[in-house]
User: Fold this.
Amino acid sequence: MHKDPSVAATVFWNIAKDISQYGDVSVTRTSLEKAKFCLDAMNDDPGLRGTKGSPAFWSPRSLLKTSLDCDMALARLEADTDIAESSERYKTGLCQFLGIERSKLDYVSAKNRNPQILEKMAAQIVLDIPRKFSKEEDVEQAFAAMKEVASALVAFSGGKASGVLATQGLAVYFVAYCFALSRDRCGDAFDCLKDIIRVYRFFSIPHMASECAALVIRQHASELGSRALVARSIVDSILASDLIRARELLGAYNARSAEPWSVYLNKLVEKLIGADVPWLSELAFAEWQQIAASQGAPSDPSIVDVVLPALEKHILAPYILYEPSLDTLNGNVD
Assistant:
């Protein structure tokens, strides 16, 4: 193994892949660890990578790709028994593959949980990645690895938003998001942003989930489902009595493409801020019903599904006087 790591790495990597199919964890782990030892040795000393043209030759690209695969495989094995070791393996393997220092990732995760700040810091990390990723399959591998690492760190956090693993998971998600944007993979970036929103909600930080709508408006307004996502964020802000955030989101959205539903929600927010009880109690719900039923109805029908229940059950409920039916007055209630 020490004399010819290029051959040894090939042998142990193939053994690990073959044995893993049969569920032998012990042999798989040992083979992966030995393969990783050889891969690291070749990474440190290019002279150990074998003779070019020989079956055991490792190009810089194949070395990095296999090293990442090896780290990911070891991290998955360790996830059931040692979360700390698994998380370190995930982070170290990813940073080695991207060519960035761990300290940069740690710095981002330690600074803030605000999505707009995290997005700016993650974008700088992506700019600093030295690898060019000229082949599409390398871009796919990098993006998939980032999402796997982020998902694992979030899962390891146990839902504790204040923990280190939680903030690191969010940081990696934002690096994945910015990486996808930098490669003009807007669909992948939008899917990643939706994952980030789910993570904020998993951590019970709904106001940060709503703040992500600002990124949706700025970067993904044309994506399918973006309108409903923005509408939900605005409604969630209203339900949380965060009318200033709702107003800001609506201002940003309407500045780009005002639509009947967003103009209505903007009017609703202003009426709530001004405590216009007559309008809220007598006209608000009827106006929304007209919008939902008219030719100006939202092009994304799910917007109605987001707004209608909130208006009916929560937002307008305190302003609308309860009028009992005749059956209730006559005592004919089951």
Notes: The chain has a mean pLDDT of 85. DSSP finds 18 helices and no strands in the chain. The longest helix spans residues 136-156.
